């Protein structure tokens, strides 16, 4: 990034916009937390279970957030801090948004890392990321209601079916995501397989010994064991 | 007819009051839409600022080319991703996850962990609310961590030993494997189905982006068929 682009990309107005994005996301999370707290008794959740769910969310999100942050830092050099914060930290994911940045730069006819990457090229990148990322937001804003109605229809017919569809959807998505990662290298395979097995063992132990705290830590522990095994086997 | 259906739901999940959650869903739609539309409008501010206040407008041609390129690259996911993840996220979870992003690598794992920690059955209202807690908290934690790292930036990362940073290259298979484990420990056959279908579709010559959707559709059909069989045999 050349000097003039760098200065605009890290200028105060863009920082202010980035913090408005942060504000919207935090506001939404807090509103939904309060809503869920109110609805918990109607869903058959006790106060204790609410606390457990909150603690589990907190513990489980630390590892993934940290992983996101590491990828993010490598993109600051390309896009500047505020845009990285807006696009990758929030809304998008590193893979999609860095591809979008490449597409935007390409549309202007320059490489992202090119020396004569101009302010106009940077603006094209900002447009591409912003408009492209809107697709998901517009679809979910407009059609989540219809999805909800479809769900209710299925539940009316047979409540058990929705439970199976939900389980199947999760298994299908993560079966694919895990396979896709695990074929990258033998170490990735080991990381995935070890995490899977550790999780199964942790959950079985937690259930047999009635250790509810262990379930809260399960994702964090399984993730660290998997990652460590993947990393350590690179030395073999 | 509807009376009958409600009775069935109550038998299935005796501790739930199905009507009590109507209000929750209405509020979720209202606030979900409001926050999403606010963010959509806000998304236009940085590019408009760059084009017309900084005065670095590249012309509409390159912007259009960029958008078309983006749509060609991943536009199909605008529609497919929300539908694919909806059965697991539910109404409120969808609004939360698509606003905060990082769905597969953060939101879903946290949602499932919260559900499993309290032993809520997938697809039940209890699971839906537990998932909302999981995702909303994850969204807040993620923002705090990211803002800290962006501001503290390179300093924080320089304190981390390189070994830890290197280990993080295996974070994705570890997260995805762990989430599979959360489902597989009770019904190992489900885990096996997921991996076999995943691998089979991964290596089949299908257009890359729709593979995950196919995988979800196929796994749902297999699970439904398996359960039907179980019932028939019982």
UniProtKB/TrEMBL annotation, chain A:
Know the name of this protein?
Answer: DUF5058 domain-containing protein
Keywords recorded for this protein, A-Z:
Membrane, Transmembrane, Transmembrane helix
**Pfam families to which the protein is assigned, alphabetical:** DUF5058 (PF16481)
Question: Coiled coil located at which positions?
Answer: none
Q: Which domain of life is it from?
A: Bacteria
The record's section on InterPro entries has: DUF5058
Q: Transmembrane region positions? A: 14-36, 57-79, 121-142, 162-179, 185-205, 217-235
Please verify whether the record's keywords include Transmembrane helix: yes
- Tell me yes or no: is Membrane among this UniProt entry's keywords: yes
Q: Which organism is it from?
A: Thalassobacillus devorans
TrEMBL record, chain B:
Transmembrane regions listed in the UniProt entry: 30-49, 61-80, 86-108, 129-155, 167-185, 192-225
Q: Which domain of life is it from?
A: Bacteria
Which stretches are annotated as coiled coil?
Answer: none
Q: Which terms are listed as keywords in the entry?
A: Membrane, Transmembrane, Transmembrane helix
This protein's name: Small-conductance mechanosensitive channel
């Amino acid at each position: 990034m050349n000097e003039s682009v760098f200065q605009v990309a890290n200028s105060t107005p863009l920082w202010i916009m980035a913090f408005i994005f942060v504000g919207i996301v935090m506001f939404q999370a807090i509103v939904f937390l309060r809503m869920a707290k109110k609805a918990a008794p109607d869903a058959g959740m006790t106060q204790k279970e609410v606390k457990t769910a909150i603690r589990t969310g907190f513990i489980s999100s630390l590892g993934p957030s940290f992983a996101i942050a590491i990828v993010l830092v490598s993109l600051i050099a390309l896009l500047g801090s505020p845009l990285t914060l807006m696009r990758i930290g929030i809304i998008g994911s590193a893979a999609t948004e860095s591809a979008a940045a490449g597409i935007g730069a390409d549309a202007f006819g320059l490489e992202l890392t090119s020396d004569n990457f101009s302010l106009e090229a940077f603006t094209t990148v900002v447009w591409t990321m912003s408009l492209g990322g809107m697709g998901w937001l517009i679809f979910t804003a407009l059609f989540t209601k219809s999805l909800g109605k479809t769900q209710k229809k299925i539940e009316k017919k047979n409540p058990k079916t929705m439970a199976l569809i939900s389980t199947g959807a999760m298994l299908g998505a993560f079966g694919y995501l895990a396979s896709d990662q695990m074929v990258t290298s033998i170490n990735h395979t080991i990381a995935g397989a070890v995490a899977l097995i550790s999780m199964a063992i942790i959950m079985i132990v937690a259930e047999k010994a009635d250790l509810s705290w262990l379930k809260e830590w399960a994702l964090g522990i399984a993730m660290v064991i998997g990652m460590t095994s993947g990393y350590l086997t690179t030395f073999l | 007819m509807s009376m009958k259906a409600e009775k069935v739901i109550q038998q299935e999940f005796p501790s739930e009051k199905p009507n009590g959650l109507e209000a929750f869903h209405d509020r979720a739609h209202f606030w979900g839409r409001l926050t999403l539309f606010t963010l959509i409008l806000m998304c236009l501010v940085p590019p408009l600022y760059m084009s017309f206040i900084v005065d670095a407008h590249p012309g509409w041609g390159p912007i259009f080319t960029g958008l078309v390129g983006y749509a060609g690259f991943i536009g199909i996911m605008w529609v497919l991703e929300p539908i694919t993840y909806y059965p697991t996220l539910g109404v409120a979870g969808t609004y939360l996850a698509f606003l905060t992003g990082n769905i597969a690598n953060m939101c879903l794992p946290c949602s499932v962990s919260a559900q499993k920690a309290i032993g809520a059955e997938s697809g039940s209202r209890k699971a839906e609310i537990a998932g909302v807690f999981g995702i909303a908290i994850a969204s807040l934690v993620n923002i705090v961590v990211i803002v800290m790292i962006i501001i503290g930036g390179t300093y924080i990362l320089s304190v981390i030993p390189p070994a830890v940073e290197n280990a993080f290259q295996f974070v994705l298979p570890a997260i995805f494997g762990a989430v599979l484990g959360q489902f597989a420990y009770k019904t190992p056959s489900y885990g096996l189905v997921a991996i076999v279908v995943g691998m089979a579709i991964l290596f089949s010559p299908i257009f890359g982006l729709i593979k995950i959707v196919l995988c979800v559709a196929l796994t749902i059909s297999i699970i439904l068929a398996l359960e039907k069989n179980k019932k028939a045999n019982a």
